[in-house]
Specification:
alpha/beta, Ribosomal Protein L13p, Chain: A, 5 helices
Length: about 150
């Protein structure tokens, strides 16, 4: 039996719209990562980028369970001595709520060129408005996705 490898012209990329309101951050991010990787498609191949575009709206209304808003820490280092910056999830949520989702999804994607290319197809917006109406993204129900 011959191994099937999708050709670049056979890969059809769809636009998916996801509403993050009331969704737990980790579960939402894992499902978004699966869509970006193309794992819900029949033509999925691990070393070929077959994923779709994902538009996430209402990022400011994503839910963190327990005390994660105050206890979950995000570290960033500037590269200079003493340049460690530590922020809580609450601080990030107040200033840039879309970064919380982007960071959670980034950590669930492959750590290579393929993962960086997949992350470019993720569009996250804090409010309910987005500039991708011309692409006609299909509403996707996260709760029914396994």
């Amino acid at each position: 039996m011959k191994t099937f490898l999708p050709k670049p012209d056979e890969i059809k990329r769809e636009w998916v719209l996801i509403d993050a309101e009331g969704q737990p951050l980790g579960r939402l991010a894992s499902k978004i990562a699966l869509i970006l990787q193309g794992k819900r498609k029949r033509i999925y191949t691990p070393h070929i980028d077959t994923g779709d575009f994902v538009v996430v709206v209402n990022a400011e209304k994503v839910k963190l369970t327990g005390n994660k808003l105050d206890q979950k820490l995000y570290y960033h280092h500037s590269g200079y001595p003493g340049g460690m910056h530590v922020r809580t999830a609450r601080q990030i949520m107040e200033r840039h709520p879309e970064r919380l989702i982007r960071e959670a999804v980034r950590r669930m994607l492959p750590k290579n060129k393929l993962g960086r290319r997949m992350l470019k197809r993720l569009k996250v917006y804090a409010g309910s408005e987005h500039p991708h109406k011309a692409q006609k993204p299909q509403q996707f129900d996260i709760s029914s996705f396994n």
